[in-house]
Specification:
The structure holds two protein chains of two kinds. In chain A, 47% of the residues lie in helices and 9% in strands. Chain A is of the alpha/beta class. Classes of the chains: A alpha/beta, B mainly alpha. The structure holds zinc ion (ZN) (5 copies). Chain B: Pathway: tRNA modification; 5-methoxycarbonylmethyl-2-thiouridine-tRNA biosynthesis.
C-alpha cells in the first residue's frame, strides 16, 4: 500500500484526477487502476457501498443494526462509513458496535481499547460480550489447557455464537460484518478446493442466516481490501493491526496469496471470482444440513448439541479433543493439510473465521 | 466395447471385465485416495491391488502410483478410460473418431488407448461370423502452431516428423494423420492466413486473452478438420490435472456459469461432439504410463503459460504437492455443478447399442430436468451466456452483427474502444461469425414459434 500511495503519487506528478479533472491525482485506485484525487476516492468508495446497500436492500428504516467490531481495519472502516452513510442518506438506522472479548492478553485487550475509542469517536454505543462470561473460559485458559494446536476451532465456533448472543442482548434486527471482497473471493476458492458445494452455493450471498436468529450482512462484499486499507490510511482512522497471537498463520494462506497475485496482474479478478460464485449452476436441492436447536443451550444446531456446547463439555470434563475431529469436511481437511506441512502452511488465511471480522 | 453385437457369442470378453472396471473405477475415483485408504493393510510390499506382483517401486519415493504393479497400474488407467467411453456412449461401432494428439503424455495415452480398443474391436470383428456391424474408425490430428511461435522450420519439421513416426508405429490398421496448421481456421480464399493470424494475436493486448484466443482457435481448427474429413467424434486427452486448472481459471475469469459445460465427459455443443475419456486420470499417472510403456511423446515448441493461466497452473501445482488428492477434489466440485443439455451424446435409437451400456448411461447420466437449455453462446469462446452476460450486452448491441460475446472475452480479447473492435472483427476467422449467425437464426425461429399464433399474415418476406 505504501508504494502505491506515496511512490505513485510522486510519479504521477502533475497528472489530474481522471474523475473530477480538477485536482491532482493522489492515488491509483486499486479496483480500477484509475488515477484519482483523495476526495474523489472517498466519494467513489462510499458511494459504491451506498449503492450496494440500496440495491440489495440491506437495511430498512428504523432497524437496529449491530456492527461487528474487532478494532481491525475492516470493522473500523465499516463503523465509520456506515455511520457516515446513515447520516448522509437518512437510512434511519440505530447503529451499535458489538465486540467479542475472547480473553487474549496482549491482543484482544489492546484491540478492545481501539474499539472503545471508536465508540467515542463515532458516537456509537458499544456492547462487549466475553468468552469468560458466556462460556466460563478465556482463550488464554483454553490455550493453556489444549495448547496451540486446535485453538482456532474453539475461537471460531465460540465467536460465531458470541456475536449472535451479543446481538440478541442488543435486540438488533441484523448484524453487519466487515467481510470484504477479498475475503469472499477467498471463500469461493476454498470451497472449490474442498469440494464443499453447499457452502459454495451460499458463500457469495450478501445476506445470510435469514432463517436463524439474527441475519448477517456484508456491506463490503464488493469492496477491495486494499481500498479499505487505503481509506483507513488517508482518513487516519484509528485501528489495530496486530495479528492474533494464537493464530498460527502469520503467513498468508495459499489461496489468499494467490488472490493477491491475481490482483496484481488483473485487479478485476477479485470481482470475477465473486461473479463466478454468484453464477455457479448449483441444484437448489443442495442444502445445508437441517437446522434444529441445541438441546442444551437453545442455539441453532444441526446436531443434538451445538458445536460450542460439545467443545465446552470437552473443556469442562478435561477432554478438550471432544468434538474437534467430528467437524465437517473442511476441518478434517485442515488437519490433513497441517500434518503434511508441519503446521506451517495452510490453504486458508483466517483459520478461526476471522479475528478481524 | 469389445464387440458391439450383443448377439455375438464368440470370444467377446466384454461384460464381465467391464463390470469389473466399473467397480474398480467407483472406488478408485481418486487413485491417490484409494491408495491411502488401503495403506493400512499393505503389509507385504506387494502390489496393493493384486497382492501378487512386485509394485513399480517399493519405496515411497516413486509416489503413491508406484505401489501398484505395472499390470495393475495400466489396467486401472485403462479401466477408467473404458468406463468413461462405455458409460457415456462416446464411441459407437459406426462412429468415426478423430483423436487430437498434441504430442504430450495425456493425448499420447489417449491415442494409445483408442488404438488398443480399436485393435480389439477389429480382432473381434474378424472373429465374428456375422459381420453386420462395422468397427469404428480412427484418425489422428496434430495442430501445428509453429506459425504463432515463429519456430525455425527445421524444428517444426522435426516435431512433425516425430508425430508422424509415432502414428505410423502404431500397429495396423494404419491411421490417417492430419497435420493441421493453426492458420487453417481461415478459409483458403481469404489470403494469407499466417499473416492474418499474427495480426489478430497482436491486436489482443492482454497476454491471457491471447492465450485463450489461441485455445479457441485450436478447437476451431480441430472441428474444421474433423468435419471436412467425415469424423463425428473429436477425442481429447484432457486429464484431471488439466481440468482442475481450467476450473480455477474459469472461476477467476468470471465464467462460473459456463464452467460445467467444459468439464463433462461429453461436450456436444460443437458441430463435432467432443469427448474426454481421460477426465478421471491424473497427469502424473499418464506421464508415468508413457514412461513405463515406452510411449514416445514429442517436445513441443510452445511458450509457457503466462498471465492468469500461468498463475493458476502454479497455484494448482502447489496445492497438489501439499495434498495429492486436491486436483481430484477440485474436479469433483466442478462435477457437482449442473451440466448443460448438450453435455451428452444424443440418445441414439439403435437397438445395437449394448443393453448394458444403456443401463449404465441411465445410472450415471444427468436427469434431464437438471440440465436446462441455454440458447446463446459467446461467438468467440462458444461458452453459454449467463443471464447477467446477456443483460449487460443490451447496450453493446449497437456494433456489429449478431455476435454476442461473454464478459470474459469482452474484457481480455476485445479491445476497449469500439473502432478497434471492428478492426479486430475483420481479423477473426469467418467461421466464428457463421456459427454465431447460425445460433442466432435458431434463436429467432424459436421466438417466432412462440408468437406464431399472434402473427396475422403468413410473413410477406418469407424466403
Ligand atoms: Zn478528483
Ligand atoms: Zn484463532
Ligand atoms: Zn448449545
Ligand atoms: Zn498388481
Ligand atoms: Zn467468450
Amino acid at each position: 500500500m505504501e508504494e502505491s500511495a506515496d511512490g505513485k503519487a510522486k510519479k504521477a506528478g502533475a497528472r489530474l484526477c481522471c474523475l473530477c479533472h480538477q485536482k491532482k491525482a493522489a492515488l491509483k485506485r486499486p479496483k480500477t487502476l484509475e488515477q484519482i484525487c483523495r476526495e474523489c476516492f472517498y466519494e467513489v468508495f462510499e458511494e459504491e457501498i451506498h449503492q450496494v446497500i440500496v440495491e440489495n436492500q440491506l437495511f430498512k428504516p428504523g432497524e437496529r443494526i449491530a456492527l461487528g467490531a474487532s478494532g481491525g481495519k475492516d470493522s473500523t472502516v465499516l463503523a465509520y462509513v456506515l455511520s457516515e452513510l446513515n447520516r448522509r442518506h437518512n437510512y434511519g438506522l440505530d447503529l451499535f458496535l458489538l465486540s467479542v472479548d475472547e480473553g487474549i492478553t496482549g491482543y484482544r485487550d489492546d484491540s478492545l481499547e481501539t474499539v472503545k475509542r471508536n465508540e467515542i469517536q463515532y458516537g456509537l454505543p458499544l456492547k462487549i460480550v466475553s468468552y469468560k462470561d458466556l462460556y466460563g473460559w478465556t482463550m488464554d485458559e483454553i490455550v493453556k489447557m489444549i495448547g496451540l494446536k486446535n485453538n482456532c476451532t474453539f475461537c471460531g465456533v465460540f465467536r460465531r455464537q458470541a456475536l449472535d448472543r451479543g446481538a440478541a442482548l442488543l435486540k438488533v434486527d441484523k448484524l453487519a460484518t466487515g467481510h470484504n471482497a477479498d475475503d469472499i473471493a477467498e471463500t469461493v476458492l476454498l470451497n472449490i478446493l474442498r469440494g464443499d458445494i453447499a457452502r459454495l452455493s451460499r458463500c457469495t450471498s450478501i445476506v445470510t442466516g435469514e432463517d436463524g436468529p439474527i441475519p448477517r450482512c456484508k456491506p463490503f462484499k464488493y469492496t477491495y481490501e486494499k481500498e479499505i486499507v487505503m481509506y483507513a490510511y488517508f482518513k487516519r482512522l484509528d485501528y489495530f493491526s496486530t495479528e492474533c497471537i494464537y493464530s498460527p498463520n502469520a503467513y498468508r494462506g495459499f489461496a489468499r496469496e494467490f488472490i493477491k497475485d491475481l490482483e496484481r496482474i488483473r485487479p478485476r479478478a477479485i470481482l470475477d471470482i465473486i461473479k463466478s460464485g454468484e453464477n455457479f449452476r448449483i441444484s437448489t436441492s443442495t442444502k445445508m444440513p437441517e437446522q434444529g436447536t441445541c438441546e442444551r443451550c437453545g442455539y441453532i444446531s444441526s446436531q443434538k448439541w451445538c458445536k460450542a456446547c460439545v467443545l465446552l463439555e470437552g473443556l469442562n470434563r478435561g477432554l478438550p479433543k471432544l468434538g474437534i475431529g467430528r467437524t465437517r469436511g473442511l476441518n478434517n481437511d485442515d488437519k490433513k493439510d497441517t500434518k503434511k506441512t508441519n503446521g506451517t502452511k495452510s490453504i486458508e488465511s483466517k483459520q478461526c473465521g476471522t479475528l478481524d471480522f | 466395447m469389445a464387440c458391439s453385437a450383443s448377439a455375438c457369442q464368440s470370444n467377446c470378453y466384454k461384460t464381465q471385465q467391464e463390470e469389473e472396471a466399473v467397480k474398480a473405477n467407483n472406488n478408485t475415483n481418486s487413485f491417490a485416495a484409494n491408495i491411502s485408504s488401503s495403506n493400512n493393510n499393505s503389509n507385504s510390499g506387494l502390489c496393493l491391488k493384486c497382492k501378487a506382483n512386485q509394485p513399480i517401486s517399493s519405496n515411497s519415493d516413486g509416489g503413491d502410483d508406484a505401489r501398484f504393479c505395472i499390470d495393475c497400474f495400466r489396467g486401472n488407467l485403462f479401466g477408467k478410460f473404458r468406463f468413461a467411453v462405455t458409460s457415456n456412449a462416446m464411441i459407437a461401432p459406426t462412429d468415426n473418431v478423430l483423436v487430437a494428439f498434441s504430442g504430450g503424455p495425456s493425448s499420447r495415452v489417449a491415442l494409445q488407448f483408442v488404438h488398443e480398443m480399436h485393435s480389439k474391436a477389429q480382432k473381434n470383428f474378424d472373429a465374428c461370423r456375422d459381420r453386420s456391424l462395422p468397427v469404428f474408425g480412427v484418425g489422428v490430428a496434430f495442430v501445428d502452431e509453429s506459425s504463432v511461435y515463429s519456430a525455425p522450420s527445421n524444428e517444426t519439421d522435426k516435431v512433425i516428423g516425430d508425430v508422424r513416426l509415432i502414428v505410423e508405429n502404431l500397429a495396423p490398421p494404419s491411421k490417417e494423420l492430419y497435420i493441421v496448421p493453426i492458420e487453417s481456421v481461415y478459409s483458403s480464399d481469404s489470403g494469407d492466413g499466417r499473416e492474418r493470424l499474427k495480426k489478430l494475436l497482436d491486436a489482443v493486448g492482454d497476454a491471457t486473452g491471447r492465450e485463450d484466443l489461441l485455445l479457441h482457435l485450436r478447437m476451431l481448427a480441430l472441428q474444421k478438420v474433423a468435419s471436412q474429413n467425415g469424423y463425428n467424434r473429436l477425442l481429447l486427452g484432457s486429464c484431471v490435472s488439466r481440468i482442475a486448472c481450467h476450473v480455477i481459471s474459469a472461476t477467476v475469469k468470471g465464467q462460473g456459469y459456463s464452467l460445467p459445460a467444459d468439464v463433462q465427459y461429453v461436450d456436444a455443443r460443437w458441430e463435432i461432439p467432443v469427448v474426454l475419456p481421460l477426465r478421471d486420470c491424473l497427469a502424473k499417472e499418464l506421464t508415468m504410463l508413457c514412461r513405463l510403456d515406452g510411449l514416445k511423446t514429442v517436445e513441443l515448441i510452445r511458450s509457457p503459460c503466462t498471465g492468469i493461466n500461468g498463475l493458476v497452473s502454479s497455484f494448482v501445482t502447489l496445492l497438489q504437492e501439499e495434498n495429492p488428492s486436491r486436483e481430484c477434489t477440485i474436479m469433483r466440485t466442478a462435477g457437482k455443478l449442473i451440466p448443460f443439455h448438450f453435455n451428452k451424446i444424443e440418445e441414439i435409437d439403435d437397438s445395437n447399442v449394448l443393453l448394458a451400456t444403456r443401463r449404465r448411461q441411465k445410472r450415471y447420466n444427468l436427469k434431464p430436468n437438471e440440465s436446462f437449455s441455454s440458447e446463446s453462446f459467446c461467438f468467440i469462446c462458444n461458452s453459454p451466456l449467463s443471464r447477467s452476460d446477456l443483460l449487460s450486452l443490451k447496450n453493446l448491441e449497437s456494433h456489429k452483427t449478431s455476435s454476442v460475446c461473454c464478459s470474459s472475452c469482452q474484457f481480455q480479447i476485445l479491445p476497449q474502444d469500439p473502432s478497434s473492435v471492428n478492426e479486430l472483427y475483420t481479423l477473426l476467422p469467418e467461421q466464428l461469425f457463421a456459427r454465431a449467425k447460425h445460433d442466432n437464426l435458431d434463436h429467432c425461429s424459436a421466438i417466432r414459434e412462440q408468437i406464431q399464433d399472434c402473427l396475422l399474415s403468413e410473413g410477406e418476406d418469407e424466403t
